[in-house]
Amino acid sequence: MVERQKQIGRDRVSRLVSWGHWFAFINGLLAIIVGYRYLDTIGLPESFIGWGYLVISTIGHFSFLAFMVYLVLIFPITLILPYSKILRGYAAVVATLSLCILLYDTVIYDDYGLHLSPFVFDLAWADLNALLRGTSYIITPIAILAIELTLANFLWKRIEKIRKLNIGNKVVAVVGACFVASHLVHIWGDAADVTEITHFDDAYPLSYPATAKSLMESYGIEGSQSNKNKTPPKSSLKYPLSAMQCTADNQPNILVIAVESLRADLVDKSTMPFLANYAKQNMNFTQHLSGGNQFNSGMFSLLYGLQGSYSNAVDLHFESPVMTQELLQQGYQLGLFTTQDTAAVPQAIYNDFKRVDAKHTDSYAKSDLQSIANWKQWTQATTAPWFSLLNLKSPESYDTPIGFLGIKTVQSATKLKPAEKVLFNQYRQSLHFVDQQIEQVVSALPENTLVVITGVSGKVFTSNTNEASVNLSPASVHVPMIIHWPDEDKGKQINYRTTHNGLVPAIMTQALGCTNPASDYSSDQSLMQPSDKTWVYVGDHRIFAIYQASEITVIDRHGKYRIYDDKYSKRLKKKLSAPELVEVMREGRRLYIH
Fold first, then answer.
1. φ, ψ for residue 527 (rounded to 5)?
2. Phi, psi dihedrals of residue 497, rounded to the nearest 5°
3. Helix H segments across 118-203?
4. CB of 43 closer than 8 Å to CB of 189
5. Chain centre to alpha carbon of residue 8
6. What is the DSSP letter of 132?
7. Residue-wise pLDDT tens digits, 147-203
């Protein structure tokens, strides 16, 4: 008798477990229906490859999420309280909450382009009234709960018939195959730069598709190097928002000297005497911030004029900056002078330039000298008006040419560790070398050339690249912005805060005669007028900082955030300042048209 009761108990648990698996599977299908809203935000694929990957990844991902919810929240209760009525009600509530969270995440993603996290939850809570419109937030959970209770009872009454069909293993095999295949396809797509696949990387919550680009390259499997001839997947990004209306009265030559790792606080008479003097004689923006602490994010903001959250937009792998498009339209010749190892991110950023690379062997100082020689040769041979971007890299690696006679060492204005002191003075030697090269370039230019001298990013004194990549302090992003603008006031010191994003509107409006509002193509106003924003976005879509008047908020891709004082010297124990951050997120979605 006792053995019989034990067998009945085991059968009951087995039936409940079987029911739970099917309940989880069908909820995975319901999650797919809800998750379709993500595709309204990022756009549908336009190729068989894109559709094939989307189907298998969607089935695999949402089925996996549903099973994990079952495994963590429902399966233990099955063993503790193996009573069908209790379990069905409990499972229906869990499934309802899960689908409501997923539905809320689709709303957040549509509005901010981010999935739920501690940071985003705080932000969305402050903006709750704008996100939840009408009474749907009351009716929808009730409707979902009714569906879940109906589904739970329907399955329980028919679970024996379903078990007799013996199709459970086949369903598991199909779902498992979709899950594994989606990751294998993504490995290939990531290595081969197939944007129809990588376009969906951040589309779904808790999605971390496998990548193995470095592994595949080590076996000689190389991805495509150019996307110029590919068709971008469908997206809702509209850049610019309206057709450009530009008519220039004159066409000055334009030179942009972008120095990697150029800190504003070391443009002084002892380190960079020429540039310090040049700044006094021209327009000097003393409170200027780069768009990021890395080369890619800094150059992106300089040429596109957009905040770094747009840097992963798939369209911009095919759409060059509006400014360079307009320069070509007005008959300019565009030249880029850099080194061979300078990557293009996004891939279309340099599409409008004639790129002239200096060979890079063991010294960026040598490469910089070659870049300057290439620039001189190109400008002398160019008859049409030109726009040239001269990228100097020496300070990034503290480099100077062999035999370079440097300057005497000095005490840093801030307290440094012993190793940092060495890097500090070696960095000054590199800046002094670059200063001499800038003097040679600028001194030979005609007076009517528009000259922009700035840093792509700042510099922290560390040899640890991982540490540097996450450091968003003023040392990493406060860079000089010095402009010689023909017919403008000389010796003008501008003390309001400006950003790299403001250079494109300045050139577009004052040099190219564009009448569009800057908001059509940029995240900021022109450098020539104070911004009405109380914040500045610095970084890319992975890690970024929000600079405000008295604090700096650093947020990573997982939604973890830290708040520092305006000197980045002390961490503050306080909550997010939600109103400004809501504006930041809105700006990051403004160019996406729904």
1. -55, -25
2. -75, 135
3. 118-126, 128-131, 136-165, 168-191, 195-198
4. no
5. 57
6. S
7. 999 999 999 999 989 888 889 899 999 999 999 999 999 888 888 778 788 878 888
- Percent of the chain residues topping a pLDDT of 70: 91
User: CA dist 431 to 216, 243, 271, 387, 463, Å?
Assistant: 39, 41, 7, 25, 17
- Cβ–Cβ < 8 Å for 562, 576: no
* Each residue's pLDDT tens digit, 90-130: 999 999 999 999 998 888 887 777 788 777 777 676 666 66
Please report, for residues 441, 494, 530, 535, the alpha-carbon distance to residue 575 in angstroms, rounded to integers and kept in the order given: 48, 33, 28, 16
**Residue at 191: amino acid letter:** A
Helix (H, G, I), strand (E, B) or coil at 391: strand
Beta bridge partners of 572: 563
What are the backbone angles phi and psi of residue 47, rounded to the nearest 5°?
-135, 160
Looking at 190-204, 216-230, 265-279, 355-369, which range is the least confident one? 216-230
Task: Quote the tokens at residue 102.
Answer: 């997923």
pTM of the model: 0.78
**pLDDT grade for 9, boundaries at 50, 70 and 90:** low
- How many Å apart are CA 160 and CA 571, to the nearest integer? 60
- Tell me how far apart the alpha carbons of residues 148 and 145 are, in angstroms, rounded to a whole number: 5
> Residue 288 is encoded by which pair of tokens?
């200027």
pLDDT digits (tens, 9 = 90+) for 386-418: 999 999 999 999 999 988 888 988 888 888 888
Query: Contact, 419 vs 426, CB < 8 A?
Result: no
At 344, the amino acid letter reads A
Backbone angles phi, psi at 58, to 5 degrees: -65, -45
Q: Which residue has the higher pLDDT, 588 or 525?
A: 525
Q: Torsion-angle region of residue 232: left (phi > 0), alpha (psi -120 to 50) or beta?
A: beta
What are the tokens at 210?
């496998």
Residue 594 pLDDT class (50, 70, 90 cuts): low
φ/ψ of residue 141, rounded to 5? -60, -35
Tokens of 414: 């801030």
- Find all residues with CB under 8 Å of 492, minimum gap 6, and list them: 282, 283, 284
**Three-class HEC string of 170-181:** HHHHHHHHHHHH
